[in-house]
Amino acid sequence: MTVENVSEIALIAGSILLENGAETHRIEGTVSSICESYGLSAECLAMSNGILLSIETSDANKITSMKKVCQKQVDLYRIELINSFSRKLKKNLISYADAKKTLDDIQNSPTFTLPVRTVAACMTGFVYSLFFNGSLLDGIASIFICFITYIILEKVAPFDMSQFFKNYLAGFVIGGTSLLAHMLYSPINQNNVITGSIMILLPGVVLTNGIKDVIFGYFSAGIAKFCEALIIIVAVCAGVITALLI
Q1: Burial class (CB in 10 A: 0-12, 13-18, 19+), 37
Q2: Phi and psi torsions of 230, nearest 5°
Q3: Which whole-number Å values give the CA distances from 126 to 67, 131, 138, 203, in the listed order?
Q4: Using one digit for the tens of pLDDT, what is the confidence trace for 45-65?
Q5: Which is it for the CA torsion 81, 82, 88, 94, positive or negative?
Q6: Rounded to 5 degrees, what angle do the CA atoms 217, 81, 201 make?
Q7: Domain residue extents for the chain
Q8: Is residue 180 packed enough to be buried (19+ CB in 10 Å), middle (13-18) or exposed (0-12)?
Q9: 216: which of 25, 38, 199, 243 fits an S-S bond (Cβ 3.0–4.6 Å)?
Q10: What's residue 119's pLDDT?
Q11: What is the pTM assigned to this prediction?
């Protein structure tokens, strides 16, 4: 396999990790490990929206490549698949075509269906409403509100809105529907319902990975993740407050 092929394979693997929410130290380590599996010395720099890779060739020259990543989500299943791919390369090298096919399969691996994800979101709202001292009635209200919110987010996803606006809209829906539920049936505590329902929007994985990056010494990446999490939290809170004020 040529140096260019190894660089492409490593960058594809790194970009899958980055766009699915992996930590910075994991991305850099995996990309470097793939290059080392093919006997090449490499240095990798992962940023919030891209990856830089420099590989030293046999004639002491360096080939530098870059891959930009725009789409972001959280998918721990794809991260695990890339980790397994990297570990297998250490034991058994494969050709460029096979490696490319494996990475394409990982990239296109199926996600949970919309009904499964919707049920998970509803159960999250239900459990957290009870966890924050809500009544069973509050939990049931959270189920319906999480269902409405998640469906709306799925419907607006194809319009390529900014992350801030999508979370603002979701917060507005949660705040408005929680207040409406309280107005229709006063025993429902709107505060407990809102607290439980917004848990489906809070960026727990992003915040946790930001802390991990800071611990591992990747301060710029960690701060970037903190800022991303802060923007989401501010957007959700702004949406809820707007709904309550209106």
Answers
A1: buried
A2: -65, -40
A3: 40, 9, 8, 18
A4: 988 888 999 998 777 778 889
A5: positive
A6: 65
A7: 3-107, 114-245
A8: middle
A9: 25
A10: 93
A11: 0.83
